[in-house]
Amino acid sequence: MKRRAFLKQGGLAAGILLLPSFVKAAVIGARRRVIFVHLQGGNDGLNTVIPYGDSRYSELRPTLAIPKGQLLRINEKWAFHPALQSLVPLYEKQQMRVMQQVGFSVTENSHYHAARIWQTGCLEGQDCNHWLSKDVMVQDYSTLDYREALQRTAKDIHDGTSARVFHTALDGFDTHQFQRVHHDRLLAEFSEGISGLVSALKASGQFPDTMIVAWSEFGRSVKENIRKGTDHGGAGQLYIFGANLQQAGIEDIKDSFWQEDSEVQRDFRGVYAGIAGWLGISSRLAQVGGLETARLV
To answer: Which parts of the chain fold into alpha helices (H)?
Structure first.
């Protein structure tokens, strides 16, 4: 870095330190952005980050349970699906968080309507009640090929785009039959895509100011069906990637997880409220009564 640029940057940093705390948060937040990755169709979290230490896993999934010899074991309770090898380094560096039983209390089995709820942060799925204010620039690449969408997102961020929120998607997670054939491949594509995106963000120096959130409109049934697949379920896993996570690692699950429709342990809107706070932007979710804001970074 040239001396003039260094002094200019140093002066800016010193100036920020002298600002009031609420102004300082807004200035710092203005450099931040969040990338959403929609695991479209309803990802099966139980076969993604796996509670292999609980005997109910293999009992309820006699054909879908990943053999213990193939698992990427994290500890005595948890393991990654073997296709998630690319995510292991992020987990080991405490740059990955797995949140359990995340969703909403309203029963919704429609892919479209459930996804709209997640996208808007409104249980009615209405744009007029969007969790983001209208002045926040959003870039939507969710109709593009997954890898292309991530590559464009990384390039936009490197080039200094004013977009604060990015949407991408990987389709195919509605695995009602022969799940292993499809799910294994999708998880490998997801894992490699995230790893490549993080590498690109680190290379451009943007990873500390970027959060990646992988979500699905709902989870899958705990018990496998007769077609060697899973059906629509309730709350599911949420995956967060970042350089300075408040709580990295894998959250524990409650016994209610093993019910037919996994009970909501965390309202997803609380996660969005935490994201908005980190971005330094206002959100209508701050006014939702009884909503617990998640501390993410």
So the answer is: 3-17, 21-29, 55-60, 88-92, 111-120, 146-158, 179-203, 268-279
pLDDT computed for residue 127 by the predictor:
67
Q: Hey, what are 290's tokens?
A: 């009884």
* Radius of gyration for the alpha carbons in the chain, expressed in angstroms and rounded: 20
β-partners of residue 80 are: 49, 72
Q: What is the predicted pLDDT for the residue at 22?
A: 46
The predicted structure's pLDDT at residue 168: 98
pLDDT tens for each residue of 81-131: 999 999 999 999 999 999 998 988 776 778 988 899 989 888 876 666 688
Task: Report helix angle 3-17 to 21-29, nearest 10.
Answer: 140
> pLDDT tens digits for 11-24?
444 444 454 544 44
**Could you tell me which residues come within 8 angstroms of residue 133 by beta carbon, excluding any fewer than 6 positions away?**
281, 282, 283, 284
What is the domain extent for residue 15?
1-30
* 229: in domain: yes
Look at residue 270 and tell me if it is in a domain.
yes
User: 149, 168 in Cβ contact below 8 A?
Assistant: yes
Phi, psi of 214 (to 5 degrees): -105, 125
In this prediction the pTM is 0.87
Residue 293 domain flag: no
Contact 60, 224 (CB under 8 A): yes
The number of angstroms, rounded, from the C-alpha of 130 to the middle of its chain's C-alpha atoms is 19
Question: d(Cα 219, Cα 268) in Å, to the nearest integer?
Answer: 13
